[in-house]
Design brief:
74 residues, mainly beta, 5-stranded antiparallel β-sheet, 0% helix, 50% strand
Length: 74
């Protein structure tokens, strides 16, 4: 399997970005849903886990719709 690369980049204002320790949370709007909820947290020095929780804010009991690990490119 080849190396994963960013092929889709969405620009969206993150006016409601919240930082709690090493976790970022935000909401954004796009054409298929009025509002989506997301969070990102560091797994290690070289890896960030981005989770999209879609219709409800991300929380420990809330199922995550999409999990995408992002590794630092060297």
């Amino acid at each position: 399997m080849g190396e994963l690369k960013l092929v889709w980049d969405i620009y969206s204002s993150l006016a409601n970005l919240t930082v709690e320790g090493e976790r970022l949370t935000w909401t954004y709007s796009h054409s298929t849903s009025p509002v989506s909820h997301a969070r990102a947290s560091f797994v290690s020095d070289d890896e960030l886990l981005v989770e999209i929780c879609v219709k409800q804010p991300c929380s420990p009991g809330q199922p995550v719709g999409i999990k995408e690990p992002l590794k630092r490119q060297k």
